[in-house]
Specification:
The protein is mainly alpha-helical and 76 residues long.
Length: 76
Amino acid sequence: METIDKAADLANEAYDKIASTTHQAVETLGEKGEQLINAEQHLMKNCLGYVRDNPITSVLITAAVSFVLGRLSSRC
């Protein structure tokens, strides 16, 4: 019986370590996800501000990028 108790104790310790590590990973991923969402919102706000402040330049950049993408896609 002593061997079974030791094995059960080791299994419980392993389970506790795995549960703790999993919990930490979930917390870290949650924090990183929030940081990514905040970064995306900040970038979109900056982008919209740039477009609002520089409409002609924004249209020219959009046209140039569209032209390049069109040329690249027509080669395939």
